[in-house]
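Structure tokens please, single chain.
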Amino acid sequence: MQNADSNFTIKYKRQFIASPETRISFFEGNPALSRIFLDEKKSGQKARRLFVTDANVARLESLSEFFNNFDFDAKKFSWEKSEKSLVFVGLEKFAGDALIVIPAGEEFKTVENVLAIVRSALDEAFSRKDIFVGIGGGVVTDMTAFAAAIYKRGARCELVPTTLLAMVDAALGGKSGCDFDEYKNMIGAFFPAERLFVFPEFVQSLSDAEYRSGFAEAFKHALLFDKKLFDEISAQKEKIKLREKNFVFKMISKSVEAKARVVQKDMTEKNERMLLNFGHTFAHALETRAGLGKISHGDAVGWGIGRALCVSCNLGLCSQEYRNQVLDLLEFFGWERGAKHSVFSEENSSEKLLDAMRRDKKNSSKKIRLILQRGLCENLISEISDEEILKCL
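Here you go.
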């Protein structure tokens, strides 16, 4: 089941975080979560686990064996407006472990739901030596890790990413948090998980939109750090669209390794880790102004990469040939390349996007901080005037 050759560990510099390292394990085939967690109980694991997932993941056929251990019938369960935002389910087979199911979607990534997870842990008398385990996409992994970070000043945390986006980005690197009001990820903490369990097989069950969303982050990592991966993506576009298993596994492992190298050097985003925000300042502004959940994060990032390269080209940093090569790939994979994204075409949309960009948490002055490129894997951090940004909107 396990591909030992793909396992590795990220070690962090000494700082005020719960875990000094994250162990990442890759597994081939179906996600046998019952085997992993029951085997650990049998081997003497005394810590209790608070599993957190969402309604969509709880319905996955590949995880039915695991969720059948709980007093929870996903097929009969439906969300009604009158119901509470969380469902809490106890479990005897795992000796005191428990399951929380939250509604699926970005609109539920709220501080209220983070606190509801904390309340459930308190109600069941979990200690900070116990483990919060997030099973899901980026919303679930971000919220679970944040709840662990603030529970009794820091409980333990493990994550099982079930989307491509979570595998190559959200679950990796210790950023936890939730949205606040209309702004994305405005509340949070750096809190890396002790372990990540990566099952590339999950990718085969994703919708086209979810798959494309996650691939945007893998594509970003190639543009920033891995020329060979970029060349392979360019040459094997059809394999990517068809989700050819060997290539998907390779793409995930290479992308994880690329991000891990950066995170290991700069956990709290003081220097090199800022490069991972390539395309994200535009993307977060689009997500905010369109309404959180109206556009997937990856689709926003794909569009944002194009806008960042437009700025780079206008400033004479990168060539038109390089910009156009990337724009053509963005279009091929289904991301919009135009200045005005179709999801947000209100009057004065450029000014509204710019206003949201000004509020980005990464800015440190009146100018807007962007990640730009001189070419493939030639990156720089720059502060850009409003005028230059408006030219590309």
